[in-house]
Structures are given as C-alpha cells and as structure tokens.
C-alpha cells in the first residue's frame, strides 16, 4: 500500500535485497545497510516505510519514544540511550527512532542546553559502535536541524517527497478501491487539485469525502464531495 517515487522505491528494493542475501554479503566481509535515515515532509510515508521493511523481513517493529529517552538531568539521556542500544543488540528488530532531530540537533545551536549536546555525542558514539543484528531507522521532518556529524553515521539516507500528480492518481486508485463513484481515479483535474498535499493529507480528504457521501445518503461519491473535503483541508491549514 505504500506509494513512492521510482527513485525511492528502487532504494528500498535494494535494501531489502541486501538483507535477504545478507549471508552472501558477509561471506565477502560486507554488511547489509543497517542504519537508515528517512527525511522529508511530514505525512509522506516515513513511518509506513519502516513498517513495510519490518514486515518484509519478518522482524518486530519497535518504536523508540524519544520523549521517554531525552532528559534534562546530567548523563540520564545517554544512560537511557544505552538501554535502548543494549536491547536492540540483543534482540533483532527494526528500531524506529521517530523525530530523530529532537535527539541530534546541531551542537552549534546556542539555544540548547549542555545535556542535549552531550546526548548528540552519545548518539554518535553508539551509532559508530553498533554491531547488532537490528535495523536502525531514524526519521526527521527537519533535516536542517540535524548535527552535521550525524549524516555520515548512516549507511543510507532516503528522502521522501510530496506525491506528484501520477502518484496521486495511484493513491486515489488505492484508497477509493471498492467505493462507488461518478469519476475515474486517473482524472487529471482531480489529481491536480490535490497536488501539493502529502499522502496523509490526501487520505484525510478522501476519508472526509466518503463520510459525507455516506451520511448524506448518496450512493455514489461525487467530485463535489471531494471539493468540499478539500476546501475544509485548506481552511484547517490556514
């Protein structure tokens, strides 16, 4: 159900191929990509992509709650991080560090306190020393906030973008499958009207439109339902 650009999709296929043939790589002294950074606007499938990787490789998905990890007390953030890394070294999982920028902000930012700077150093050291069997996935909506030293610690950096018109048509076909409607999902005018929205935004618009169709007693989804739901979406964004 995940819809990506061809470039991003190709990267995912390569990563999964590496892990499905990890023994071959290791026989040559190489490792499959284990530390991944997903960046891009919110609502464009970063978390869903982590779920897809976990499902494809039959690994549990573990969400690392950074609000529980970060502490203002001296040394506590690093201690919490050590517990996380000890766990994922012992148990093979896909570990999702959502909103990673909260943990690895640029150390040159004078607005942040010393403990956060120490936590960045701790993260860098743990990423450098990581030798477990888990896949680490960090996501950020604000890549410009990340400390410069963080980037080179990842095996692959994958950028997620807002869907283009062709991808929006695929979203429409997927999400409106089974819904009776008086328009085609490859209607360029409809897709163009949704251009500039994220995957999550489009899903929300479609969900509102279908609810309105049902509650108004209509048998078919009309373009007018989409127009009303889209207008409501833009009102909320103002």
Features:
5 strands; 11 helices; alpha/beta
Task: Please give a structural write-up.
50% of the residues lie in helices and 10% in strands. It is α/β, with parallel strands linked by helices. It has a 5-stranded parallel sheet with strand order 2-3-4-1-5. The longest helix is centred in the last third of the chain and has 17 residues, at 199-215.
Provide the residue-averaged pLDDT: 89
The largest sheet is:
5 strands, parallel
Please give the radius of gyration in angstroms: 21 Å
Distance between the termini: 30 Å
Enumerate the strands of the largest sheet in spatial order, edge to edge or round the barrel. Answer: 2-3-4-1-5
**Beta content:** 5-15%
Number of helices: 11
Q: What pattern of helices and strands is seen along the backbone?
A: HHEHEHHEHEHEHHHH
Shape: elongated
Sheet/helix structural class:
alpha/beta
Task: Briefly say what this structure is.
This protein is α/β, with parallel strands linked by helices. The chain has helices at residues 6-20, 22-27, 46-56, 66-69, 76-90, 114-129, 148-151, 165-175, 188-193, 199-215, 223-237, and strands spanning 35-39, 61-64, 94-97, 135-140, 156-159. The protein is built from eleven helices and five strands.
């Amino acid at each position: 159900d995940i819809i990506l650009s061809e470039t991003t999709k190709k990267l995912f296929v390569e990563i999964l191929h590496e892990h499905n043939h990890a023994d071959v790589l290791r026989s040559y002294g190489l490792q499959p990509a284990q530390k991944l950074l997903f960046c891009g606007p919110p609502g464009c499938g970063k978390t869903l992509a982590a779920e897809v990787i976990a499902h494809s490789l039959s690994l549990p998905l573990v969400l690392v709650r950074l609000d529980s990890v970060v502490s203002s007390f001296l040394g506590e953030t690093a201690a919490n991080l050590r517990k996380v890394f000890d766990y994922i070294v012992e148990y093979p999982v896909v570990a999702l560090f959502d909103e990673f920028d909260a943990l690895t902000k640029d150390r040159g930012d004078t607005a942040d306190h010393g403990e956060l700077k120490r936590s960045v150093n701790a993260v860098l050291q743990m990423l450098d020393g990581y030798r477990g069997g888990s896949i680490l996935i960090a996501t950020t909506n604000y890549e410009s906030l990340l400390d410069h030293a963080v980037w080179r610690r990842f095996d692959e950096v994958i950028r997620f973008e807002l869907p283009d018109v062709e991808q929006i048509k695929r979203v429409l076909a997927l999400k409106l499958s089974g819904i009776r409607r008086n328009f085609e999902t490859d209607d360029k005018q409809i897709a163009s009207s949704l251009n500039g929205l994220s995957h999550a935004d489009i899903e929300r618009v479609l969900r509102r439109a279908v609810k309105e169709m049902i509650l108004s007693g209509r048998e078919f989804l009309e373009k007018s339902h989409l127009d009303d739901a889209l207008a409501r979406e833009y009102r909320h964004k103002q």
